[in-house]
Amino acid sequence: MGFIKGCRPFLGLDGCHLKGKHKGITLSATSIDANNCLFPVAFAIVKSECGDSWKWFMENLYSSIGEIRGLAFMSDKDKGLEAAIPLMFPSAEHKTCVRHLYQNFKKKYPGELFERLIWNCANSYNTPSFQWHLREIKSASSNAATYLEGLTAQAWSRSQFTPNARIGYVTNNISKSFNAWINKTRQMPIVEMVETIRHKIMERIDHRRALGRKWRGKLVPKALKYVQTIVKDIGEYIVRRSSDVMAEVAGPDFTIVVRLDERTCTCRAWQVTGLPCIHAAAFITRIRGLDICDFVDEVYSLQKFRDTYASSIAPMPSKGFRSISILFNDPQSFPTALLKKPNTVVPFSSAATSNTGSKRGNSANRPQPPPIGKPNKGSGPQHNSSNEGDNKNTADEKVNNNGKN
To answer: CB-based burial of residue 342 (10 Å sphere; 0-12 exposed, 13-18 middle, 19+ buried)?
Structure first.
C-alpha cells in the first residue's frame, strides 16, 4: 500500500544470483519514496531468470498493485522482461538502463568520445539538445548514429520521457542498490534469506515512519535542500516578464520560456522531474510574495513521504506458532520453469510491501522526485548521493550529475 499511496509510479526491475548452497535468482521490483530513498515493493526467489519466471513475477506484481496510471519500468532489458511487461502492464513505459545500453554499444563503437556523447544524449531534457549531441555522434560515425536511431529514444533519453512518472533516472541504480542492500542475505538458505529481508523491510518502514513524524514543513529534506541550492545560482539569468505567469529567461547561452500557470519550461526539466528548473527559479524568485516551495510537485511533499510509510508489515511468530499460508502444492503459485523438473525445490516469494489490508491498488497518479542535488547551471535537477535520514544499513541510489555512479 505504501507504493500505491506515496511513491511515484516508477519501478526498477532486476534479478541477482543467490550465492549459497541453494542456487537461484532473486527478482525484485523497487521504487523510491519522496525523499529519494529506495522503497522495496516486491521480490521473489526463482530458479532461473527466464521468460516464464518474469511472466509469473509480473502476474503476481499486477495482482498486488493493479493498473497504475503513468506507470514506468526501468530495467537492463533482462531475459523475458520485454515480453512480460506489455503482457501484464500494456500501457506502462519500459525504460532502458543507459549503462547497460552503452555496454552493448561500445562493443561495436568503443571510445571516450562516444561514451561522453551517449551520456549527453541520455541526460538531455529536450529534443533540440538530444539532436545536437546525436549529430555529434553522426559526425564521428554515421553507423554509430544509425545504431542509436534504431533504438527507442523514449526508453533511454530524458528528452523523450513523459512527465507522468516525474522521473529523471536514466540508469537502473535503484535496483542495483536493492541488490546491494540484500547482499549478505544471498548466501543464506532460502527461507532464512526471505525472513531476513522481511525483517529488514519491516524495520526500514518503521524507521522512516518515525522520521516522517519528526520532520516539519511542506517538503522532504532533499527537495528543500535542492530548492535552497538552486536559488543561489540564478544571478546570471535575466528575466523578461511577459505577464504575471509568463517570462523569457535568458541564460549564458540561450533564452528559455517559463510558464508558472502550467508549471512548464521549454528546457523540460521542470515537466520531467517535477522540480522547478533554474529558469523557473529565476522567474519565481523575482515575483514578490511567491514561495518557490509552492511550485515543487506534491510527490516531494512530506505528506507523500508519510503516506508511503503509514502502513506496516505485520510481525510474525516463529514457524511453530503460525499456520503455513503458502500452498506449496498449488502449481499456480510458482513459475512454469520450476515445474519442468520433478522434485524441484520450490522457491519462496514475497510481496515486500504488503500489509494487513487489501493488496489490490486502484489506478492512481503517483508521481515522485527525481534525484536531487546541486544542478548545473542551465540544466534541470540532478542526481545526488546524499541521503538524509538514512542509517548505516541503508543502501540507497547514488547517482552523480552525469547519471552515472
So the answer is: exposed
Q: Decide the pairing of beta strands 72-75 and 93-96.
A: parallel
Are 284 and 319 found together in one domain?
no
**Torsion angle (degrees, nearest 10) of CA 95, 98, 103, 104:** 40
Bridge partners, 248 (sequence order): 240, 257
C-alpha neighbours within 13 Å on the C-beta side of residue 211: 22
Q: In a 10 Å sphere around its CB, with 0-12 CB exposed, 13-18 middle and 19+ buried, how is residue 232 labelled? A: exposed
Could you list the mean pLDDT of each consecutive 10-residue stretch along the chain, which spans 405 residues? 94 94 93 97 94 95 95 87 92 95 95 97 98 97 96 93 94 96 95 95 97 97 97 94 97 94 98 98 96 97 98 84 53 52 36 41 40 39 40 41 45
CA triple 137-268-296, angle to 5 deg: 140
14 found inside a domain? yes
Looking at the structure, tell me whether residues 165 and 183 fall in a common domain.
yes
Buried b (16+ CB within 10 A) or exposed e, 152-173: ebebbbbbbbebbbbbbbbbbb
Residue 390 within a domain: no
- Please tell me the chain's helix, strand, coil percentages from 3-state DSSP, rounded to the nearest 5: 40, 15, 45
Q: pTM of the prediction?
A: 0.80
Is residue 363 situated within a structural domain? no
Q: Phi first, then psi: what are they for 359, rounded to 5°?
A: -95, -20
What is the phi/psi pair of residue 273, to 5°? -100, -25
